[in-house]
TrEMBL record:
Domain BBS7 platform, residue spans: 173-275
Protein name: Bardet-Biedl syndrome 7
Source species of the chain: Larinioides sclopetarius
Keyword Coiled coil: yes
Claim: NADP is one of the keywords in the record: no
Coiled coil: 17-47
UniProtKB keywords: Coiled coil
Length: 395
């Protein structure tokens, strides 16, 4: 029996079938054109002559935040696509610290600050499918400038985005709500023809965690503490006057130098006065003492680990060793890991004591840089009372 489509209630109209077939042919033709253009684009992008390529867009979630617990900055970069590598560049001295959550391979390039202005060039090469990178950085207070991250994803053609982060003069200070006035405090007072908005912008430039927006009222007060040394800082300012108090003379010295420089840029003359508390010097050295003693002991322990391991290879019984050496041997991995995570901690403490020594006498109008080698010799054979006596000796 001959069947006719028109006899069925759900029969498809032949015109509809024709249109669907035509659309399928158009889609196939467009797919072929896209494939052809993609091949042409790849050839053009890879060509050395006449290659024109558009930079693909990729978004980055980034954060540069001070970690109060270990006085370091955590730079977090998160990209929607896989990261190929990240170049970290800094025009001020900074230390890169070991991070547990960072599996990237880091390599350093030599820098010449005098010729190229770079103090750090480090490249992190990421593993496949890495979309998040964490870098721990520790700055040096008094050294301020810009840190830049060049993020290159696994995209074609090759491209990168740049992120910039400001390293502030007192970068290791954080906001707090209390201020210990019982400490021996040094005071710096600045007076001049500056507006409230102007002095506030200078404070924002110097200190982290200060809002860009000027606080309401005719004056402002902020309290800070050092995340590295636990010293304190009091800031009060209004139109034409600002007062700073700290138990660390170096903090006062940094503020004096930076604020004077900022005022000079604006051609504002400042009347500067300061009151140095002599008791703050032994106070600071005693404050640093536990940290310095711990780092010196850690360095000595790490130095003898290799010798103890060699001894363990050749001796079956190590009971003859002193208990302290047995403890070092048993915890050698932990000690080396701790030392590796903060390789410059001891040098940083030496640097802070040296800066304190120079700053103490700078406020007295005496240049003691020629005495620094003697100071370093005392630090290498560290004794707290000897160090205090050296600071208090008449020059």
């Amino acid at each position: 029996m001959k069947e006719h489509l028109t006899h069925f209630p759900h029969a498809v109209d032949p015109d509809v079938i024709k249109r669907i077939t035509h659309l399928k042919e158009e889609v196939e033709e467009l797919q072929q054109q896209v494939q052809k253009e993609r091949e042409n684009y790849q050839l053009a992008a890879q060509s050395d002559i006449g290659g024109v390529s558009a930079v693909p867009y990729f978004s980055i979630n980034d954060m540069f935040q001070l970690n109060h617990e270990d006085a370091s900055y955590l730079l977090t970069l998160e990209v929607q696509t896989a990261i190929d590598n990240v170049l970290i560049q800094s025009d001020v001295p900074v230390d890169l610290l070991d991070s547990e959550r960072n599996s990237a391979v880091v390599s350093y390039s030599s820098c010449d600050p005098e010729s190229d202005g770079n103090f750090l060039l480090a490249t992190y090469r990421c593993q496949a499918n890495t979309t998040r990178l964490e870098v721990k950085i520790r700055s040096i207070e008094g050294q301020y400038g810009t840190l830049q991250a060049y993020i290159t994803p696994r995209l074609q053609p090759k491209c990168c985005q740049i992120r910039q982060y400001q390293i502030k003069p007192l970068s290791l200070h954080c906001r707090t709500h209390t201020f210990d006035e019982t400490r021996p405090l040094n005071t710096l007072t600045l007076r001049g023809a500056f507006a409230l908005a102007e002095i506030h912008s200078w404070i924002v430039f110097c200190m982290p965690e200060v809002p860009e927006r000027m606080p309401p009222g005719e004056c402002a007060t902020f309290y800070f503490k050092s995340t590295f040394l636990d010293t304190v800082l009091y800031c009060y300012y209004k139109k034409g006057e600002s007062v700073f108090k700290s138990d660390n003379i170096s903090t006062i010295s940094i503020l004096k130098d930076v604020l004077t420089r900022e005022a000079t840029k604006k051609k504002i003359s400042l009347d500067i006065s300061f009151d140095i508390n002599e008791e703050s010097v032994p106070h600071m050295l005693r404050f640093i003492h536990p940290k310095l003693e711990y780092q010196l002991l850690l360095a000595k322990k790490v130095q003898v680990i290799d010798a103890l391991k060699d001894l363990k290879v050749h001796e079956n019984d190590l009971s003859f060793l002193a208990p302290e050496y047995q403890e070092i041997l048993n915890s050698s991995d932990q000690l080396q890991l701790e030392y590796k995570r903060q390789p410059c901690h001891l040098e940083r403490l030496f640097g802070m004591i040296t800066d304190l020594y120079i700053d103490v006498y700078k406020f007295k109008g005496i240049n003691v840089k020629s005495k620094v080698p003697s100071l370093l010799q005392i630090l290498n054979n560290y004794d707290l009372e000897t160090l205090i006596s050296f600071f208090q000796a008449k020059r």
